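LAB NOTEBOOK - FOLDING QUEUE
OPERATOR: T.R.
BATCH SIZE: 2
PURPOSE: Compare the predicted structure-token outputs for two unrelated chains run back to back under identical settings.
PRIORITY: normal
REVIEWER: second-year student, initials M.K.

ITEM 1
FIELD SEQUENCE / FIELD STRUCTURE:
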Amino acid sequence: MLEFLLCSLVTIFPDYLFRRYWQGKKWGQEINLFSVWYELRYGLTTCLLLTLALITVVFYYHPSATNVRSFFRTVTILPETGGRVSEVLVENGQSVKGGQLLFRLDSASQEAAVLAAKTRILQTEASIPVAEANLAAASATVEMAKANLAQAEYDLDQERELADKNSSAALEQRLVRASNLALVRQNELEAAKANQLAAQERLKEQIPAELETAKASLEQAEAELAKTYIYAGVDGSVEQFTLQVGDYVNPILRPAGILIPEKFSSNKRFLASFGQISAPVIKVGSYVEMSCLSKPFTVIPMVVVDIQDVLPSGQIRQEDRLLDPQIGLLPGSLTVFLEPVYPGSVDEVLTGSTCLANAYSNHHDVLHEGDVGSVERVYLHAVDTLGLVHAIILRIQVFMLPVFSLVLSGH
């Protein structure tokens, strides 16, 4: 409508003045509702074409976006293990600090496991002196077996010497008995050495391994016990937190609540969705004006700080059928990242607010270089000047936004 009114000032209105005062035709006689089209056909046609051209230029070089938001990340309050709540230490809406305990699950079984692991460690440590005593006893047994073997071998040598001299005192039976006794002493020595080696291995390898296993079991039990204490990961506020003592929480089926981080960014960043046709016009550094529902009647100066170089509509993932571009793919929009020109100008805008924005093209640098023709220079000046039309439209929208939101939306 605004574009049509502007165009009518240079088409329909001069045409009407020409016919009214130059040709002397009067409204209601020669000029009436029936003859208006015929009398003003040239002005109406020119106005229509000029309006279409003006709207095209304005919306192409100064695009608008009705979907502008500041997104933020929430942290789910979720225990690592399921259990029944035994203690709740915070309330819904309360501000918390990172590392603050939020609630605790029943930990009777975990505490029993920790106690059992500690007892196993004490038992293993207590077996060390016993193993040392067993090793000492085995070593003494080895020494005693060596002495018995030496005595048996000495007696056997004496019997053999007597037998070699054909002594009457050397009897065959005594020689056999001495030989068997030496063999028994040898076997006793081997058995004592084996017991000594077993005692050494138990003291050196088995008991330390049992002690490490017991310590690992204690660490695992303590880790399971720690899972029953749920802490805040970051500073923020607790929302949708309605836990009561006795409630059952599950890491898959039932989270405990949501933690909204206290600070998302020192400068809030907004994401605007522009049409794909605006890609050649919007550049990093382009000036943008934005208005949000949570801060009505306010136009906030913004600047384009980044432009996503891919369109979400082109995203695919591997599946078992071929991709057909004409099935189920929406056109997609150009994602533009905006930040405020003046720090603090968006502090009163609630994060997640719905906003609208206008972007404005600026050919000042091109015109300043002077390497453009006269026609192009006039055209670029006109294009930049037409941004005023869109700025006026934005301010009309800002003024009417509460009316549409509160009155005309059926509130």
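ITEM 2
FIELD SEQUENCE / FIELD STRUCTURE:
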Amino acid sequence: MTHVIADDAEALTAARDLAGELAAEAAIRDAERRLPGPELDRLSAGGLLAITVPREYGGADVSARTVAEVFRLLAAADPNIAQIPQSHFVYINVLRRQGTPDQRTFFFAEVLDGRRFGNAQSEAGTRHVQDYRTSLVAAPGGGFLLNGVKHYSTGALFADWIPVLARREDETLHVAYVPRDAPGLTVVDDWNGMGQRTTASGTVRLEDVAVPADRVVPHHLTFQGPQLHGAFAQLLHAAIDVGIAGGALEEAVAFVRTKARPWFESGQERAADDPLVLQRAGELAVKVRAAEALLDAAGAAVDAARADLTDESAAAASIAVATAKAFADPVAVELGNAIFELGGTRSSLDGLNLHRHWRNARTHTLHDPARWKIQHIGRYVLNGQPPPRHGLL
């Protein structure tokens, strides 16, 4: 039986409680590449995957700030588990924006029952990240046929439904919601990244997969007016990076307090009293707290735009999210490295697996380059130029 969360406060309590459980074996899951099936089942059963379902369909419809904080809490415990449902929430949002009433009724009920969305969006070997070759062609007897190969399909291996991004004959983008066990659909667990090892972000192959017309959503319409699709999706990515940074800081502090030795010239008995260690820990804490504050401000901007969606409010939300992510990305990588700076030689022992924080941060922050976010922020600040509506801002 899947629990239905009632409001923001309950969602945050549930996330904190689950994060405490997930943190206990996060290092072991990473080291052994133990896929988190049971952990995801707990995430589903507890109701956290349904917190953005609109109230008129029975959900809590929590704020973007709350969703971001849920992701931050989960990512601090295990960023693999936090990343897996990122697309789940994004494709709930697609239905909210472009789904028909019947589609919303059906799929939101699925989500409230604990069903999970994966994703089959990105493709490898194309000209760039938005050069999609997967085709959605009208079938002779009605409905459509899907053909293509997707990569980086985070969540697909654990999903009940796999949203597939594909182009129609007129090149317009659509999302087809396909059952995980649909004939012609194959999920290959071939993800072998150095970090985020247990996200199972592998390959999805689609060979003449039949899709009924009522399982297809016209995604291209999302970008024809002011929209928060990109801002919301990027907010969750930023939350994962902020969570990684916070989790790394917490583990670094614990290591210094219990295992690290002071440098002999410090004259101190404990590493935690070494003045240079204190200085560095303070610097890192400031960066993590700043990243958390920017994330919260970005969530508030998305919520403000949701309440009054205009070109101006959508642009402000996208810029706020871009600011948070552009700051958080290097902070997460720095914190993953700083564990060794603070912990000393012993912290580098492979059995401790402290390097997972850096590997996770470095891998996840490759999702889209922060340098382009800085470009769009600069154009917005100097010239009032709104960011483009391409879904990555």
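REVIEWER COMMENT (ITEM 2): Strands lie at 135-138, 144-150, 161-167, 173-179, 185-188, 203-211, 216-217.
FOLLOW-UP: none requested
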